[in-house]
């Protein structure tokens, strides 16, 4: 049996009752004022539930009733536009006055219209000559955590879950976030620097979609976890392989391609909505 988790800033009681009817749930319980669980839900009518939730701007998830928060052993996250609100490379480009050109390539790559490796190489090349110290301005002045990020991490960390931040972005930012948020691991691309300036190249192999999936599998196997003990969060097309590899692959305010293909979605609440799946 499943619990059907419903989340939104405001949830009408009649909507909960209709969802209980659609899913054959026998009880409605509040998790928070913005989250409810419908116990004993059946997935036979999942399509009707999904259509109703989409029409009424509700996030939903069917979760096995015997799975609790303490069962989650690994949380894997993308960084840009997932854990944080910005695309770091676009903000770096803004310091050079070329944000529109870079942001256009970024958006196309995240929609899955461009090969990620090629698009990143093109974008990084445009940053050549920028003072390395300028990255600190992006971190200090522009980088903000996504709503609910800290609450989500603290909730999973409290039960002993490990955390992996893996990004097609840059170690300059992931390393700082790892320290700030007490993350278990952080993996990203290394910007090449010579004489205090960006060269427009990367130092090591690019962190692409396949690498994200592979690192999730590697850490999961190292920890001896089952697939359903892993949560993954992302927003771009390069996150889809890792979202499919996790027991709970969640598209977070994601691009249309990711919305269409990801197993789970959060569109109307913050990242802490992932915690409510298991409460």
TrEMBL record:
<dbReference type="InterPro" id="IPR004469">
    <property type="entry name" value="PSP"/>
</dbReference>
<comment type="pathway">
    <text>Amino-acid biosynthesis; L-serine biosynthesis; L-serine from 3-phospho-D-glycerate: step 3/3.</text>
</comment>
<dbReference type="GO" id="GO:0016787">
    <property type="term" value="F:hydrolase activity"/>
</dbReference>
<dbReference type="Pfam" id="PF00702">
    <property type="entry name" value="Hydrolase"/>
</dbReference>
<dbReference type="InterPro" id="IPR025138">
    <property type="entry name" value="DUF4072"/>
</dbReference>
<dbReference type="InterPro" id="IPR050582">
    <property type="entry name" value="HAD-like_SerB"/>
</dbReference>
<keyword id="KW-0718">Serine biosynthesis</keyword>
<keyword id="KW-0028">Amino-acid biosynthesis</keyword>
<keyword id="KW-0378">Hydrolase</keyword>
<keyword id="KW-0479">Metal-binding</keyword>
<keyword id="KW-0460">Magnesium</keyword>
<comment type="similarity">
    <text>Belongs to the HAD-like hydrolase superfamily. SerB family.</text>
</comment>
<protein>
    <recommendedName>
        <fullName>Phosphoserine phosphatase</fullName>
        <ecNumber>3.1.3.3</ecNumber>
    </recommendedName>
</protein>
<dbReference type="Pfam" id="PF13284">
    <property type="entry name" value="DUF4072"/>
</dbReference>
<dbReference type="InterPro" id="IPR023214">
    <property type="entry name" value="HAD_sf"/>
</dbReference>
<feature type="domain" description="DUF4072">
    <location>
        <begin position="4"/>
        <end position="41"/>
    </location>
</feature>
<dbReference type="InterPro" id="IPR036412">
    <property type="entry name" value="HAD-like_sf"/>
</dbReference>
């Amino acid at each position: 049996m499943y619990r059907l988790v419903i989340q939104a800033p405001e949830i009408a009681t009649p909507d909960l009752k209709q969802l209980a009817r659609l899913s054959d749930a026998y009880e409605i319980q509040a998790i928070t004022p913005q989250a409810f669980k419908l116990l004993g839900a059946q997935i036979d009518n999942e399509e009707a539930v999904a259509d109703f939730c989409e029409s009424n701007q509700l996030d939903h998830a069917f979760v096995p009733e015997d799975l609790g928060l303490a069962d989650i052993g690994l949380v894997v996250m993308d960084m840009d536009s997932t854990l944080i609100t910005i695309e770091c490379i676009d903000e770096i480009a803004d310091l050079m006055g070329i944000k529109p050109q870079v942001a256009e390539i970024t958006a196309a790559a995240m929609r899955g219209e461009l090969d990620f490796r090629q698009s990143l190489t093109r974008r990084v090349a445009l940053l050549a000559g920028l003072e390395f110290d300028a990255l600190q301005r992006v971190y200090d002045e522009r980088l903000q955590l996504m709503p609910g990020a800290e609450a989500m991490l603290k909730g999973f960390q409290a039960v002993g879950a490990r955390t992996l931040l893996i990004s097609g972005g840059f170690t300059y930012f992931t390393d700082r976030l790892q320290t700030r948020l007490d993350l278990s691991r952080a993996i990203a691309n290394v910007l090449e620097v010579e004489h205090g300036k960006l060269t427009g190249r990367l130092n090591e192999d690019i962190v692409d979609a396949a690498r994200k999936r592979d690192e999730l599998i590697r850490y999961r196997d190292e920890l001896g976890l089952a697939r359903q003990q892993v949560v993954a969060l992302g927003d771009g097309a390069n996150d889809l392989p890792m979202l499919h590899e996790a027991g709970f692959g969640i598209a977070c305010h994601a691009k249309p391609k990711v919305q269409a293909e990801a197993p789970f979605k959060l569109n109307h609440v913050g990242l802490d909505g992932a915690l409510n799946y298991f409460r």
